[in-house]
Amino acid sequence: MRSITATMFVTLDGVVQGLGRPDEDTRGGFSHGGWGPQYNDEVMGRELATGMAKPGDMLFGRRTWQDFTAAWGHATDGNPFTRHMNAATKYVVSRTLENVDAWQNSILLRGDAVDTAAELKDRPGNDLSINGSASLVRSLHAAGLIDYYTLLIHPLTLGSGARLFEGPAPLTKFELTRSVTTGKGVIIAHYARR
Fold first, then answer.
1. 191, 174 contact by CB (below 8 A)
2. Which of 132, 139, 177, 184 would bridge 64 by S-S if both were Cys, CB 3.0 to 4.6 A apart?
3. Rounded to an integer, what distance in angstroms lies between the CA atom of residue 128 and that of residue 29?
4. Which of 173, 108, 106, 162 is closest to 138 using CA atoms?
């Protein structure tokens, strides 16, 4: 059975919306987009590269896959993150996409997110990682399918925006397996489900 790891960039007040740029996700009138890049540094880059050094497949919700496709799908910059993401098998959970031909090595999983992800997790293969895709993470967490979290906790509050855990989330206990603090105050915490 494969494991599922969710890597989420999150503020102190739990916001996960619009990390990368002002226009990334303005749903609900969110006006704080682009809050994350100012906190990038060498320590964060090394820590993320360590996670990407292991072989694995990626799991996406529709919205994040489309955003990543635009940002990474046609990049040829030699960045190790670009190489990793372009080479990885990318499973995309969606009820609305017709195809996922826009980004190489993408496979469409039609139907209910929890059912399709559970079925994929039960198949033999590489472990799965989710980067972003907060709605998918919430659904899979509620179903008990997330095995590990890597949370990049940023030292700011936004006061509004979609939060990592909105709505019902079951009582779930995790063990802190490792943590690193970056030079810009981001705590990178690795948790394993008990």
1. yes
2. 132
3. 32
4. 162
To the nearest 10 degrees (0 to 180), the angle between helices 134-142 and 113-122 is: 70
d(CA 22, CA 115): 33
How is the chain split among helix, strand and coil, in percent rounded to 5?
A: 30, 25, 45
Show the domain range for 75.
Answer: 4-193
- Which residues lie below 8 Å from residue 176, measured CB to CB, with a gap of 6+? 189, 190, 191
The two three-digit tokens of residue 160, written as one number = 């509004």
- The whole model's pTM is what? 0.93
Q: Cα–Cα distance between 158 and 37 in angstroms, integer? A: 15
Cβ-based burial of 132 (10 A; exposed 0-12, middle 13-18, buried ≥19)? buried
User: For the segment 63-94, what is each residue's pLDDT rounded down to a tens digit?
Assistant: 999 998 988 787 777 677 778 888 899 999 99
Closest C-alpha to 104, from 117, 86, 118:
86
CA distances from residue 127 to 74, 87, 118, 140, 194 in whole angstroms, order as listed: 25, 15, 13, 15, 18
CATH number of residue 39's parent domain: 3.40.430.10
Q: Using CA atoms, how far apart are residues 128 and 31, in angstroms rounded to an integer?
A: 31
- The single-letter DSSP state of residue 161 is S
